[in-house]
Design a protein that fits this description.
alpha+beta, Peroxisomal Thiolase, Chain A, domain 1, 5 helices, 20% strand, 169 residues, elongated
Length: 169
Amino acid sequence: VLGPVEDGYGILSVDLGADGSGGKYLNMPAGGSRHPASHETVDNHEHFIHMNGKEVFKFAVRVLGRSVMKALDKIGMTKNDIDLLVPHQANVRIIDSAAKRLALPLAKVMVNVDQYANTSAASIPIALCDARDQGRLKRDEIVVLVGFGAGLTYGSLVIKWQKTEEAKK
């Protein structure tokens, strides 16, 4: 789906950030060298993701729109320049709320969480691939990828799309 592009296409802007104060809301308590696996950590299910869904929802809705706007502002664009928003597919409530905060019609938002559920770090690439396969990516359009995750982290990427449907063959 992604690859080399001509000058003037591809990545136009990036916004990345983290809010460590919310790390307790989405994390994996054990693993790695800090808390290596032991009978106790395995018995306590510390090698699985722990999440406070309500707090993660509030964080995601707040930062997704803010991150998109910061990435657009860096290059003098506005939300009106977005042709397609491809968000992390955590759940449809977060996607809908973020779209409302950006005042983007859902026709400009790629949603496939209903088909695959939350595929974690793969959700944006899968959604981008589906958008391509559905003919929703057109040359010269502005595509914004936006996600969030553990830690709590977030990021946006503004792309000027070059590839056409023929390019995937």
